[in-house]
Amino acid sequence: MRIAATIARYLMGAIFLFFGSNMLFHFLPNPPMPPGPMANFSIAMAESHYGVAVGFFQVAPAILLLINRYVPLALTVLAAEIVNILTFHITMQLGGLPMALAVAILWVLVFLRVRSSFAGIFEPTPQQ
Fold first, then answer.
1. Using one digit for the tens of pLDDT, what is the confidence trace for 59-111?
2. Number of neighbouring beta carbons within 10 Å of residue 112
3. Is the overall model pTM greater than 0.85, yes or no?
4. Residue 124 domain-assigned?
5. Fewest Cβ atoms nearer than 10 Å: which of 5, 59, 82, 87?
6. Looking at residues 109-125, what average pLDDT do you find?
7. Could you give the number of structural domains in the chain?
8. Helix/strand/coil for 78
9. Rounded to whole angstroms, how far apart are CA atoms 76 and 82?
10. How many Cα atoms are found within 13 Å in the side-chain-facing hemisphere of 82?
11. Containing domain of residue 21, as a range?
12. Is position 8 within any domain?
């Protein structure tokens, strides 16, 4: 399990570093958008520069995963990113859903390795 979690951590770090960097520096060509909600969403993200924030919150935890520092913090930030990625692909672009599910599985593998760091948030009431 330790080796699988380490491989998952590196893969997830590389994926988020690459695609987060693309959101910041736009080095991959964008295919033409089909009309509809996906195009509207993408235009809103681009015009508002919201994509820059999303890119930052993908790159920063990716670096933490790759250097194996503050992994629980990186997983916490990436959990929100992954929920948004899954929601996007479920509601607007089913074609990307397999990759999104693969990243979610990688997240779970890394989470299981460091789950003791999250023990306190699963308690019904805080300990005094």
1. 999 999 999 999 999 999 999 999 999 999 999 989 999 999 999 999 999 99
2. 12
3. yes
4. no
5. 87
6. 91
7. 1
8. helix
9. 10
10. 23
11. 2-27+35-117
12. yes
